[in-house]
Amino acid sequence: MLSVFCSPTRYTQGKNATASLGGEMLGLGLRGPALVVAGRSASRLLSPTWQTTFGEAGVEHAVHPFGGECSLAEIERVKSAARQHQARVIVGAGGGKVLDTARAAAADLDLPVVNCPTVASSDAPCSALSVIYTEGGVFQEYRFYRKNPDLVLVDTQVIAQGPPRLLVAGMGDALATWFEARTCVAGHVRNMRGGASTRSALALAELCYRTLLGDGADALRAVRARVVTPALERLVEANTLLSGLGFESSGLAAAHAVHNGLTAAPATHAYFHGEKVAYGLLVQLVLEGQPRSVLEQVLHFAAEVGLPVTLAEIGLTDLPAELLQQVASRATAQGETIHNEPFEVRPDLVADAIRAADALGRAWKTREGLTA
Ligand SMILES: [Zn+2]
């Protein structure tokens, strides 16, 4: 098996980075017209800056307001808007689902894509894959593209104005990266791009975990105060770049498969990807029989920043046996990344681990004097 590492062509991050968007695109040879697929708050916050930066760079642009879900229907709507404006590049600006939709449309039309995440809520922006959901918000499929985004531009001033909970969700997604990566590497399985992992990808995944532990709590305080600090810059890089490169070039395992399973329970739809992934990570660690010291470090971090460690905290105050069975079956569906674990994973094992992780999280909260 060949080793494969992939990444966006260029990654730009910093306070008020949006002001440089037009210039950054020109530097890569990306000319207009540009179709900007924009979430509501991205439009509200960034429209004046787009006018200026695209104006200065001589890049024509039109804005397509995002419909709310990365579904096949929304991807088609973006494609027809791109055709109508004769777009030569697609720019996604907003949360994870906006960027996933922009990437999917650009891939179908064979156009370059620029991702401008306005929140650091997941590690999707740097990747060459999208997660497709049904219009009702149930996980449908992963879609893989030939190449990663041409440019990922992260404006930390915008992220500092966003909801703190989204930054925390991004930490949940990033928290799983190192654990899923090392499971994949130990098992010599293929990464998300079909190759073996590299020392580079694994090192980035580990740095991602260490950055979370070191900077997560301070970065959260910065966003609560709506300010940009060095800790926030490092944490945003961990959530977006380190986690993105780490997961894609090393691989996913149980944590993300359990996330996909959890989407079968409608009550979890009110919770973010990263929040469910954080719970999925606890399930993975239980399933793998990891030592108490590992579990405690993860629980401690989760509690420190407010990531869920119990089923109730992802909306499942009540999880009937039948629904648990559906979740476990979905998590162990054929082709799921849970089969990257180095042992046979059956639905009943996963169902038990889901309950065990909940018991563990509740016991931890009681011990720490937190409300269980
Ligand atoms: Zn993820």
- Span of the ends, CA to CA: 46 Å
Bound compounds, please?
A: zinc ion
| Beta-strand percent range | 5-15%
C-alpha Rg, in Å?
Answer: 20 Å
Q: What's the tally of helices?
A: 13
| Total beta strand runs | 8
* Overall geometric form: globular
Helix content: 40-55%
Major sheet strand order: 1-8-5-4-2-3
Whole-number mean pLDDT: 95
Residue stretches low in confidence (pLDDT < 50, at least 5 long) are none
Sheet with most strands: 6 strands, parallel
Task: Name the helix and strand elements from N-terminus to C-terminus, one letter apiece.
Answer: EHEHEHEHEEEEHHHHHHHHH
State the secondary-structure class: alpha/beta
Topology at a glance:
Layout (H helix, E strand, L loop, with lengths): L9 E5 L6 H7 L6 E5 L1 H18 L3 E5 L6 H13 L4 E6 L1 H14 L3 E5 L11 E5 L5 E6 L6 E5 H5 L3 H23 L12 H26 L5 H21 L3 H9 L10 H15 L4 H14 L15 H11 L15 H21 L5
Parallel strand pairs: 1-8, 2-3, 2-4, 4-5, 5-8
Antiparallel strand pairs: 6-7
This protein binds zinc ion.
The site of zinc ion has 6 residues, from α10.
Protein model, in words:
53% of the residues lie in helices and 11% in strands. With 372 residues, the chain is of the alpha/beta class. Strand 4, helix 4 (96-109) and strand 5 form a beta-alpha-beta unit. The protein is globular, with a radius of gyration of 20 Å. It starts with 9 loop residues before the first strand and ends in a 5-residue tail after the last helix. Bound molecules: zinc ion. The site of zinc ion has 6 residues, from helix 10.
